[in-house]
Design goal:
Helices cover about 25% and strands about 20% of the residues. By secondary structure, it is of the alpha/beta class. The chain starts with 5 loop residues before the first strand and ends in a 7-residue tail after the last helix.
Length: about 280
């Protein structure tokens, strides 16, 4: 690893989970450029990493204005890919089409390494992205290193990898060791109804009445309840949400729980990304 550190460009940076993962992996960062437009996400990032260089709108970023980028990372908006979206317009959707900005900057910046994260998606969109990046991803589930299930695809040229007969790169990153972390193990109190946190929206149920929470659980199952006693239920609190995704406790403390939950829901399972980043150590 270079003593001066690496230059990172993070697109759709959110609250900078990539920066947390780099720090946890022990990778020194020289300059960290972040593209993000959500006010609350930027506030959280700058509160925790004040040296972050915020660039704003991804469509306005030009490689000529940046130094040599060693690592390009990002998780382009997934709403149009997600199986939870009935329309699923994929790369043609308004939000997920921002993927093409990632491709543009990958070609312009020519980083040493790149990482693109996204949700499990249709075969059409999967192969479309593979063709654009000339790379096949590794599929890793956050449940191996955390108390939450977050199943994701990672397109990357971070070692190890192989090539197929057409010279397309195929990621060979191994699954991380299962830490056997459960939802119960991160709770401040109460008893969890599930082994892992499975709610699609991490802030779901915040502020809901007892009747609402129980009704939603009974009718949809898309909520993770914590029983404080036979009658009293709740959803996970803010500190528990952070622990669930390997985020340092207090990282989102400047926000209320709903805003923090929205950002965490859009973020990464940090220790999965840390596991991927370990392939960079000693190579840049």
């Amino acid at each position: 690893m270079s003593k001066k550190g690496i230059n990172v460009l993070s697109l759709f940076d959110g609250m900078s989970c990539g920066q947390i993962a780099l720090e946890k992996a022990g990778i020194k960062v020289n300059k960290y450029f972040a593209s993000e437009i959500k006010k609350h996400a930027i506030e959280v990032t700058q509160h925790n990493y004040p040296n972050t260089i915020q660039l704003g709108d991804v469509t306005k970023i030009k490689s000529k204005d940046l130094p040599k980028i060693d690592l390009l990372i990002g998780g382009s908006p997934c709403q149009d890919f997600s199986r939870a979206n009935k329309e699923r317009k994929g790369v043609e959707g308004t939000k997920s089409s921002l993927f093409f900005e990632y491709v543009r900057l990958l070609k312009e910046c020519k980083p040493t390494y790149f990482l693109l994260e996204n949700v499990i998606m249709s075969d059409y969109n999967y192969w479309f992205i593979c063709n654009e990046l000339d790379c096949e991803p590794v599929r890793l589930c956050g449940g191996l290193v955390s108390g939450a299930l977050r199943d994701r695809l990672y397109w990357t040229n971070i070692p190890p990898f192989s090539y197929d007969i057409t010279s397309r790169l195929i990621s060979q990153i191994t699954q991380p060791k299962d830490t056997l972390t459960t939802l119960q193990s991160v709770l401040d109190s109460g008893v969890a109804t599930k082994r892992k946190h499975t709610c699609l929206n991490t802030s779901s149920g915040v502020g809901g009445t007892q009747r609402y929470l129980k009704h939603r659980n009974a009718t949809t199952g898309m909520i993770t309840l914590i029983y404080e006693d036979d009658e009293t239920v709740r959803t996970v609190n803010q500190n528990e949400l952070e622990r669930l995704h390997n985020i340092p406790e207090g990282y989102t403390s400047i926000l209320n729980q709903k805003k923090a939950g929205d950002l965490i829901g859009d973020g990464w399972t940090v220790d999965i990304v840390k596991h991927i980043f370990k392939g960079i150590i000693g190579r840049v």
